[in-house]
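Anyone up for a design puzzle?
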C-alpha cells in the first residue's frame, strides 16, 4: 500500500512539471520562429523544403518542424536557390491568418490537421546550437 501511495505521489508531482514543459513548448512554437528554404525539386503538387525551427530544446524544435513547414508554405513562401524555383505563399490575402484565427488555431493545434500535409524524411534532421536556443 505504501509503494502504491508513493508511486501516486510521484506521478502527481510530475504532472505539473510535464504540463509546464508543454506550455513552454507551445509558447515557443506559437511564435512561429523558423526559417524555410527550398531543399530541391519535388514531384508536382508537393514541396520539398528545409525548415529551421528555433526553440530552447532540441526535441521541441524537431517536433515542430512539420507544423512550421506547413505554416511557411501557406503564409511565408520561400526563396529559390540551388536549382529551386522560389514559391510565393499560398495565402495571398494579407491578414487572412488573423481573420480566421479560430480555424488556424485548431488547424495548427497539437495533433491538428496540419499533420496530414507534411512529413519528415528519415535521417535528415540536424541540430545546431545558436546561443541559448537550438535550431
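Challenge accepted. My sequence:
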Amino acid at each position: 500500500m505504501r509503494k502504491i501511495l508513493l508511486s501516486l505521489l510521484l506521478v502527481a508531482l510530475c504532472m505539473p512539471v510535464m504540463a509546464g514543459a508543454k506550455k513552454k513548448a507551445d509558447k515557443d512554437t506559437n511564435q512561429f520562429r523558423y526559417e524555410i528554404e527550398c531543399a530541391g525539386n519535388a514531384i508536382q503538387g508537393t514541396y520539398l523544403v528545409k525548415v529551421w525551427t528555433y526553440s530552447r530544446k532540441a526535441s521541441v524544435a524537431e517536433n515542430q518542424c512539420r507544423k512550421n513547414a506547413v505554416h511557411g508554405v501557406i503564409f511565408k513562401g520561400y526563396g529559390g536557390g540551388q536549382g529551386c524555383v522560389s514559391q510565393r505563399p499560398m495565402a495571398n490575402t494579407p491578414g487572412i491568418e488573423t481573420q480566421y484565427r479560430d480555424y488556424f488555431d485548431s488547424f495548427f493545434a497539437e495533433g491538428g490537421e496540419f499533420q496530414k500535409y507534411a512529413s519528415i524524411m528519415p535521417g535528415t534532421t540536424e541540430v545546431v546550437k545558436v546561443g541559448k536556443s537550438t535550431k
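A detail worth pointing out: The two ends are 46 Å apart (CA to CA).
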